[in-house]
Amino acid sequence: FAMSAFFSSASVAAAFGALIYFLFFVPFFFVGTSVKYPDLTATDKIGLCLLPQTCMGLGTTIWTTMESAGFGMSIGNVDQYATDDDNFTMQHIFGMLFLDCVLYGFIAFYVENVFPGQYGIPRKWYFLVQKSYWFRTPTIPLAGAKVSGPDHSLVQPM
User: Considering the chain, what percentage of its residues have pLDDT values greater than 90?
Assistant: First the structure.
């Protein structure tokens, strides 16, 4: 969804979306499926989880490890480590996926407002820090000014 804000053509967005999806999954191939996974610190894994596809890959690794150990994955053990030497839980994965949703949703919102496309009105790059964005002031007519409204003089009573 966040990628759609960067493209105006659907075919270009589909092509680049597939490429970016694959590129976000590449780090998992280097750390999640090798002997390097146990050597990573929790901070390293949190950094990798900023890419949602890599986060899902790490979650799948934890899930399959728990299933192969015989105690499985349930809502009651999302905060337990898959192995004794692991430093990451499914609770971390769920939290990072939620953070990814918020982060990428904000990126899509911001890019869509600054670069709205052909039919939108672009905002300034710093629109979020402007007081006028957060506090809209209603227009109040000045004292003594005539307020224009519908003209009822053309309607004749029956």
Answer: 43
